[in-house]
Amino acid sequence: MAKRRHRTRTFAERSDPPIRAGLLSPTRTVPPSIPRPPYALTGDPGPSVSSNVRTPDEIQRIRRAGQAAAEILMEVGPRVEPGVTTDRLDEIVHDATIARGGYPSPLNYRGYPKSVCTSVNEVICHGIPDSRPLAEGDIVNIDVTIYLDGVHGDTSVTLPVGGIADHDRLLIQQTLVAMNEGIGAAGPGRPVHAIGRAIERHARRHGLGVVREFIGHGIGTEFHSGLQIPHYHDPRANTILRPGMTFTVEPMLTLGAPACAMWDDDWTAVTQDGRRTAQFEHTVLVTDDGIEVLTVTADGTVPAEALALTAPG
Ligand code: MF3
Ligand code: CO
Ligand code: CO
Q1: CA 144 to ligand 3 center in whole angstroms
Q2: I want to staple 94 with a disulfide (CB 3.0 to 4.6 A). Which of 115, 120, 177, 215 is the partner?
Q3: With a 6 A CB cut-off, is 176 part of the ligand 1 pocket?
Q4: What share of the chain is helix, strand, coil (3-state, %, to 5)?
């Protein structure tokens, strides 16, 4: 029997044309009156020196930064539609951040050129906003971080662009549930690895992959501080969570294999197999009796629930 060069793919496996880089707009500016994080000028955040446990004053400020990040997501989310460029989403986030007196944390962080990350389809994370218009059927993660009053708040959602395929909708929904399962496994006295174990268990139950190369992180006066939060079960992550710790939970789940490749821009991480991936992210605080999600709006709206699950399509 003749050897087939390609096996037949089912609809669910069909790969869309790969995302390709577009053109970058000129670097956006931040008014001089807005306080900047230490890396804004050089791009170098330096080594992490902050404690894993925050002071009450820092916690109050991180709470406000988290709230602002969630509110910026609520501003930009409804602007996601076919035809809008990711550069336009960057402009919206940039302006909304400045309007709150904040600095867009991604801007010049390790040389990152834009104010938000926009990761489309097979882009796992750190997609750079550019001139590519979103197309009906795409999925896009928008990852907002604001530096406000000396601390960072970090949150992201994955949204459908117009009508999307059922398997992409399931990917988005189950990635959100996985993040919430991870947060639900956290609390004072619990080990960090309980978070990844819960996320991985949920992903496996739905036949989804879990990316290992990118993990959650401590956050506060530094964008990424010492604490590491794997989204898979890693028994070495045996730090015991204590009240006052603040960190992110931000799993990236894949329809296919979770293996990563990097574009030559050294930022854009994609799945090697070209299949789609979704991510959600919250900044959370360990309290005396549980977990407080800090990336919710002033009126208690959770952007993921308000945007990702109710969008048409
Ligand atoms: N917001 C991302 C995170 O969740 C980090 C982006 S770093 C950047 O950790 F430089 F790409 F913006
Ligand atoms: Co983020
Ligand atoms: Co983060």
Answers
A1: 9
A2: 115
A3: no
A4: 25, 20, 50
Contacts of 37 (CB under 8 A, 6+ apart): 45, 103, 105, 109, 147, 152, 223
By the 8 A CB rule, do 203 and 209 touch?
A: yes
* pLDDT tens per residue, range 101-140: 999 999 999 999 999 999 999 999 999 999 999 999 999 9
**Residue indicated by tokens 């994080």:** 37
pLDDT, tens digit (0-9, with 9 covering 90-100), for 76-102: 999 999 999 999 999 999 999 999 999
Distance CA 247, CA 153 (A): 10
Arithmetic mean of pLDDT, 68-83: 98
* Closest ligand 1 atom to 267 CA: 11
Give the pair of three-digit tokens for residue 40: 């804004």
